[in-house]
Amino acid sequence: MNSKQKIAIISPPILIGVMYPVFQLLSGAFGGSVIGWYLGLVLYWLIWCTAFPLWIVGKESIRKVIRPQRLNIRVFLLVLFPLIGASLYKLIPGMGYQKPSLWIFLLYVSTSFGNGFFEEVLWRGVYMELFPDSILFRIVWPSIWFALWHYAPGSVSSNANVLGLMIGSGLFGFYLSFLAKKTGTIWWSIVAHAIGAIIMIA
């Protein structure tokens, strides 16, 4: 195992350990409003989902794992499955998003696209590139930590069922890793993640 693989294995608990207090501080600084939560996500996207992947696997590797792939019936069905799951997830009590204004709704929509792209680069793309032949470190490890990561932003969200968010994210993460493995790209996991998130907030 090389040094970058070791760093990728130990980075998820460090990410959570760093980002949890960041979310708490930003939430406190903005009086518990959605602004603190959103700024926490922006920092997470910039540092952990952009700078870290660029450093650990490089720009060319990220381009390679994102490359678009033609949509065929098999890929369509693979992408459709998590979207149906996202629709059913909304039926769980306490999983809805309160949208008191159009501005908050638009903020949530932007997080759907942000998370769809940036989280897939980190949680699927990095591990797909560094561990192409390991089910444990390509699929299982990042999916578990993807679930646990959601405790940090969920802890400052006034309308989040944090345990449900973590369980749902973990299951979604496993499926998105499977989708990336089956298609050989994170392109369709980005699409499924973004559209699934929009379904959940709509």
What's the quick description here?
The chain has nine helices and no strands.
Brief descriptors of the model:
single chain, mainly alpha, globular, 9 helices
Characterise this structure.
This protein is mainly alpha-helical and about 200 residues long. The protein is built from nine helices and no strands. α1 packs antiparallel against α2 and α3 packs across α5.
Topology:
Blueprint (H helix, E strand, L loop, with lengths): L2 H27 L4 H23 L2 H8 L6 H17 L12 H29 L4 H15 L1 H4 L7 H22 L3 H15 L1
Helix pairs in contact: 1-2, 1-6, 2-5, 3-5, 4-8, 4-9, 5-6, 5-8, 5-9, 6-8, 8-9
Give the biggest sheet.
none
Order of helices and strands: HHHHHHHHH
- Measured by DSSP, the beta-strand proportion falls in under 5%
Measured on Cα atoms, how large is the radius of gyration? Answer: 16 Å
Outline, from the CA principal axes? globular
According to DSSP, the number of beta strands is 0
From the N-terminal CA to the C-terminal CA, the straight-line distance is 43 Å
Whole-number mean pLDDT: 90
Secondary structure: helix percent: over 70%
Helix-strand makeup class: mainly alpha
Tally of alpha and pi helices: 9
